[in-house]
Design brief:
Strand content: 5-15%
Distance between the termini: 57 Å
CATH topology of the largest domain: Aminoglycoside 3'-phosphotransferase, Chain: A, domain 2
Largest sheet: 6 strands, mixed
CATH class of the largest domain: Alpha Beta
Number of domains: 2
Number of helices: 16
Helix content: 40-55%
Number of strands: 11
CATH superfamily of the largest domain: Aminoglycoside phosphotransferase (APH), C-terminal lobe
């Protein structure tokens, strides 16, 4: 049986005070501890490490180890404090939807560690070609939408598992929380100006109105990946695997497309109103027609994309607040960037 060390959600939050991230993950002591855990957990399942364990990715928010084994490649991942729920959430999703999720071999949610089997090549191996190929998205996005529809009935369970709470009822308070942290908003080369901060404060009532308007359409809030792009989707063995759920939240489902469509447009070298990007949007919206006609869904989409700027900014806000100033380098103005995107969208549509 897979090894799952489960603890209460309160214990996980307490762990934040003593857990560290990149500085620890780079030490020989941590590597020895992780390598021992990986080896032991695999041995319990009759799987043996057959070569050197490598550490190809080391970021302030996570690190990944590549493990050659008697049953093929396995990956170990450690997640930063504040997102320690990720492995447990992933394992639960895998138990509910094994056809779309990574195969979790073991996890320790007190430390934010997880072992998964190799899921095959990333989707980007077939989308970021020359010329770019966005056609696979037309099948992927409806399947993801169907997953979201199915998970709507489990929203409470997912919140209890640690998914970020980006429900519309919470968003005005989160918006105010970020605006109150003016020092962070001004940080970095692209930090907000005094005038932009003033304008955002003035938009506080309008933001609450937008949340109410979006709620009135009646689209159920559900699981929202929040970083759904072709580097977090895998295509091994004829299966689709949706991975990296640490930043996922319970939110309006259409927030998803903010990252998906922008990333696809950027790497394809086209604008967001280009025909292939519009086709992706429409493919995603098609399963949602059980809730509203297409014309209404397009209005919902437009409003959701405005609020999605703030929601994505808040995810980054949670991350940056857990990093040192050195670890923030290169990302320190990302919250400002997202709030500026919201400001510009609202002013444009005024």
């Amino acid at each position: 049986m897979p090894y799952f060390r489960a603890v209460s959600y309160r214990e996980l939050r307490d762990e934040r005070e003593r857990m560290t991230n990149m500085q620890t993950w780079a030490t020989p002591e941590w590597r020895a501890e992780m390598d021992d855990w990986v080896t032991a957990r695999l041995a319990e399942q009759g799987i043996h490490v057959t070569g050197e364990i490598e550490q190809p990715h080391l970021y302030p928010w996570s690190t990944v180890l590549r493990v050659p084994t008697s049953e093929g490649l396995v990956y170990a991942k450690a997640t930063m404090a504040g997102f320690l729920h990720g492995p447990r959430l992933t394992a639960t999703l895998a138990s509910w939807k094994p056809d779309l999720m990574p195969e979790v071999l073991a996890f320790d949610d007190a430390r934010g560690w997880m072992l998964t089997r190799d899921a095959g090549p990333m989707l980007r191996t077939i989308t970021r070609t020359d010329p770019p190929n966005l056609t696979p998205w037309l099948d992927i996005l409806p399947r993801y939408a169907e997953l979201q529809i199915e998970m709507a009935s489990r929203a409470g369970e997912l919140l209890a598992l640690g998914a970020i709470d980006h429900r519309l009822v919470t968003m005005p308070g989160l918006f105010a929380q970020m605006l109150a942290d003016e020092e962070l908003l001004r940080t970095g080369e692209e930090g907000l100006t005094d005038d932009e901060i003033r304008q955002l404060h003035a938009l506080t009532p309008r933001f609450a109105e937008l949340c109410d308007e979006l709620a009135a359409f009646g689209i159920p809030e559900t699981l929202q990946h929040d970083d759904f792009h072709d580097g977090n989707i895998f295509i091994g063995g004829g299966r689709l695997i949706f991975a990296d759920w640490e930043e996922s939240c319970i939110a309006h489902p259409f927030y998803t497309l903010r990252v998906t469509l922008r990333a696809a447009a950027y790497f394809a070298g086209v604008t967001e109103d280009a025909a292939p990007i519009v086709a992706m949007r429409d493919a995603y919206l098609e399963p949602w027609q059980q809730f509203a006609p297409r014309a209404d869904l397009l209005r919902v989409f437009a409003t959701a994309q405005q609020i999605a700027n703030v929601a994505r900014g808040h995810t980054w806000y949670l991350t940056l607040k857990l990093l040192t100033s050195e670890e923030r380098r290169g990302e320190e103005d990302v919250v400002a960037f997202n709030l500026r995107q919201f400001l510009e969208a609202v002013m444009r549509d005024a």
